[in-house]
Automatic annotation (TrEMBL):
Residues 267-355 form the Nuclease SbcCD subunit D C-terminal domain. Belongs to the SbcD family. Pfam families: Metallophos, SbcD_C. SbcCD cleaves DNA hairpin structures. These structures can inhibit DNA replication and are intermediates in certain DNA recombination reactions. The complex acts as a 3'->5' double strand exonuclease that can open hairpins. It also has a 5' single-strand endonuclease activity. Keywords: DNA recombination, DNA replication, Endonuclease, Exonuclease, Hydrolase, Nuclease. Gene3D superfamilies: 3.60.21.10. This is Nuclease SbcCD subunit D. Residues 1-218 form the Calcineurin-like phosphoesterase domain. The lineage of its organism: Bacteria, Bacillati, Actinomycetota, Actinomycetes, Kitasatosporales. Signal peptide: none annotated. GO terms for molecular function: exonuclease activity. PANTHER family: COMPONENT OF ATP-DEPENDENT DSDNA EXONUCLEASE, NUCLEASE SBCCD SUBUNIT D. Heterodimer of SbcC and SbcD.
Length: 387
């Protein structure tokens, strides 16, 4: 069976001040053509269809067009909701849409109910695990604690129990939207940390023939059977070196798997350049970047006059300008930035307590801080669901 794995469309999102709807339309055109030309048997969309809970009308219209075009090809499509989506909105009329072969999985309570596909070699059970916000679904799964590993582990227990009751030789596919240990994040994914533990081990998905992941925007292979497709378009300059695409996965009769990465259209390449303004305007090595979207970092000791206007004269697609003057090693700005780098919300909060009081937070105080952070995140997630 031939599967096309994609995710993180983020319909309605812009790239800095650039409207990306045209590029997203081009991607949908490409997706439909790949499904037709490569004789795809099923399309897997692993969450973050939209960029926000209440997407703009143009994004909804593009999504509607995509569904109609996929249904017209008579190719089953399985979609799950991601942490950017409103599960309730995305799942509206899922039962009716399912009759057209578009299967929306947005309800955590039905994660063990697969879409069963068939080919000449038998059945393939496809399970859609929507994004599971631990604080909101803990009771549903009877999970201990509010970590992503706890709730995903319980969801996968349900999947394996259902799979065990199916005919021998049934192949299996799971879609999930999560941060799996070993994955490399970029700057454009929304933080899903809860209790300081955002990631889940890949072993949570043991026993499944293929795991189609969404959430991280870089295409990644965490194991032969566990992959991120990544987003089809870049949504931050941290993705400048990403190869954007989809996975074309062939699942054999015995569960053997081969995968081919298919590139998606690039509306305009990205580049990060750094140096003094004079260097950036004169360096011949940067000529190849003149048609790129640019993030420029200026290292001038003093801010030069009209830097953006002068950069635009050479790099007309410059979108962001960062000032990072070269300073001495002991400068307070540098030491403070380094103290914060790669530290979690929990660690920053505990550092603040230690700085203000002069002594570190004890275990009980750390637990209070963790609970407060988790409650804020859960409240934010609940607001997204209700909106």
């Amino acid at each position: 069976m031939r599967l096309l794995h994609t995710s993180d469309w983020h319909l309605g999102r812009s790239f800095h001040r650039v409207n990306m709807l045209g590029a997203q339309e081009e991607f949908i055109d490409h997706l439909v053509e790949v499904v037709r030309a490569r004789e795809v048997d099923a399309v897997l969309v692993a969450g973050d269809v939209y960029d926000r809970a209440v997407p703009p009308l143009a994004a909804v219209e593009l999504f509607d067009q995509a569904l109609h075009r996929l249904a017209a090809l008579d190719v089953p499509t399985l979609m799950i909701s991601g942490n950017h989506d409103s599960a309730r909105r995305l799942g509206v009329a899922a039962g009716l849409i399912g009759r057209a072969g578009i299967h929306l999985r947005t309800d955590p309570a039905s994660c063990e109910v697969p879409v069963v596909l068939s080919d000449a070699h038998g059945e393939v059970a496809c399970y859609g695990l929507p994004y599971l916000e631990p604080a909101l679904v803990k009771a549903e799964f009877g999970a201990e604690g509010t970590s992503h590993e706890a709730v995903l582990g319980k969801a996968m227990d349900r999947v394996r129990a259902d799979l065990a009751g199916r005919p021998p030789g049934t192949r299996s596919v799971v879609l999930a939207h999560a941060f799996v240990t070993g994955g490399q994040a970029s700057e454009s994914e929304r933080d899903i940390t809860v209790g300081g533990v955002a990631s889940v081990p890949a072993a949570v998905f043991d026993g499944v023939d293929y795991v189609a992941l969404g959430h991280l925007h870089g295409s990644q292979v965490l194991g032969e059977r566990v992959r991120y497709s990544g987003s089809p378009l870049a949504y931050s300059f941290s993705e400048a070196r990403h190869r954007k695409g989809m996975w074309l996965v062939d699942l054999g009769a015995d569960g053997a798997l081969t995968a081919e990465q298919l590139d998606t259209p690039v509306p305009r390449p990205l580049a990060r350049i750094s140096g003094t303004l004079a260097e950036l305007l004169a360096d011949p090595a940067l000529t190849g970047y003149e048609d790129h979207w640019i993030e420029a970092t200026l290292t001038d000791a003093a801010r030069p006059a009209e830097p953006m206007a002068r950069l635009l004269a050479r790099f007309p697609h410059t979108l962001t300008l960062v000032f990072a003057p070269e300073r001495t090693e002991g400068a307070p700005e540098i030491s403070y930035a380094r103290r914060l780098r790669d530290r979690s919300d929990q660690q920053i909060a505990e550092d603040f307590v230690a700085h203000v009081r002069g002594s570190a937070a004890d275990a009980a105080e750390a637990a209070v801080l963790r609970q407060a952070i988790d409650e804020v995140r859960a409240a934010d997630a609940a607001r997204e669901v209700v909106r």
